[in-house]
Amino acid sequence: MEFRLEAHRIVSISLGKIYSARGQRGGLKLHKNLLVSLVLRSARRVYLGEPGGECALPPRPGPPPPPDCERLRRGCRPLASEAAARGRPECPAESPRKRSAAERDPAAGYPGKKPRREAEQPPPQEDMETGNVASLISIFGSGFSGLLGKERGAAEATEPGQVCCEQPVLRSLNPWSTAIVAF
Amino acid sequence: QTKTGVLKISHDIFLWSDIISTVEFNHTGELLATGDKGGRVVIFQREPESKNEPYNQGEYNVYSTFQSHEPEFDYLKSLEIEEKINKIKWLPQQNAAHSLLSTNDKTIKLWKVTERDKRPEGYNLKDEEGKLKDLSTVTSLQVPVLKPMDLMVEVTPRRIFANGHTYHVNSISVNSDCETYMSADDLRINLWHLAITDRSFNIVDIKPANMEDLTEVITASEFHPHHCNLFVYSSSKGSLRLCDMRASALCDKHSKLFEEPEDPSNRSFFSEIISSVSDVKFSHSGRYMLTRDYLTVKVWDLNMETKPIETYQVHDYLRSKLCSLYENDCIFDKFECAWNGSDSVIMTGAYNNFFRMFDRNTKRDVTLEASRESSKPRAILKPRRVCVGGKRRKDDISVDSLDFTKKILHTAWHPTENIIAIAATNNLYIFQDKVNSEMH
User: Fold this and answer.
1) What is the mean pLDDT of residues A126-145?
2) Which of B83, B214, B246, B265 to mutate to test the interface with A (most CBs of A within 10 A)?
3) Other residues' Cβ atoms within 10 Å of the Cβ of residue B429
């Protein structure tokens, strides 16, 4: 039970960090925000009692056997998800990587390497993909209590900018936890 | 405009922009460069030891100061780019001039440092101040001669390597071929030729096709000191990847993966954060790698991928305080690590202005403090101790009275001698071991 209390505290601290990271000088720090999102994910699992939540805690004596923490650590979703039940492979051998150089610019002239020549074409300004933050902030702007209402239904989430969802808000944090990662 | 916020620590008040953000000796140890959050670089030069002034033996004095980077604003993304110098790396000296690379979050610059101690005098057409002479007064021709002048150190930007990185640059490393160098950001590593600024080769790319699948970022990288085709990069998950540029053009597939399985008894909400590697350094021999994560330094043998050969606890007493350290952001502090010249001693910083040294042969370790009180010139540093309950000796510091705002993130060791440079917030300390000045 005390783990749930600590998890709750960590969730609220983490959300506060993500919120305040928005105005940081120098732009969003991808590394720090990734780490915060991983902590948030672990704490959320413990708080909600989801399978895999035990991975964030030190092992306790006695049953049940812990879930496959190594798979979770590698970023795979827990096996108890619908997709696994359907038999779809959940975890690639490695983290998804960008396609190899051979598939990118065959006309580069250099075997496999892709030099970016500024003189010939201005490089497309690659986005750090921070667009999802805006919707995230609109939820957090309503205060953390809005997220803790596990019993709330969709009817209450009617303010503009908030998410309308079928399930209790915190339980459906899943799309938003991935938005956190998408900094 | 440079940020001029004021940070108050205890009774010290100083400018945010004066905080030192990187320290690096050059290959001979004659020069020491520091970068700060205000985008400035200060180069110190070691005074040659002379018999005339025995007390001035080998001290470092300011040699040159210059503004390397300025704050920039990316209007398209509405982003301010900090001028903070993240890393400085010296190029091996190839002529009378010295060269170094400095980088902020986005742009790497190559600087040439030259000395001028003579100037030409006796021009025919202009006078000493450079004004054109009245030609009617010129009755004969003279050859200008070089006359000695006060030493002037000039630093000029020779190359600017811009637009290579979407994410924040965390490390740069000069190749042993002295022609190329690499720069790493959170998701990519680029290879540059020192003479070519308009293109770079991408050699590592771990950006997932869908950013929502991101689980890991690059935290540091370095070229092997002798094999110009090998480099290593560390990740936020605590792994090291050794890559061979001869194996393939895009080094997404590592040649070797160094990873230690997690200790299940130490699992916590913060296990992932504290396993993130903040620095990686090859030994001078090239045989080993040194890594720093939040609580430990580890020595890895290139021939063994399954676990480090040595692990040293830097401040294990913080393990029970991780939640507080997460709350005050200290858990995200990125400490660096260093080898001594003979690879027998390793060093890293900690909190309360403490830094730690571990002797790999004797297995002895020491905690020292960089502070004005304990660092009068030629004073001997007294070993410090943090007590974790139990018997407390005089001068011990308890864990709860550690000052977490005084952190030593950046340290450097002279390439051959027992001289170390310690950056403590805005102060630089240089300690020399006079008794044991030769490497043992």
Assistant:
1) 44
2) B214
3) 21
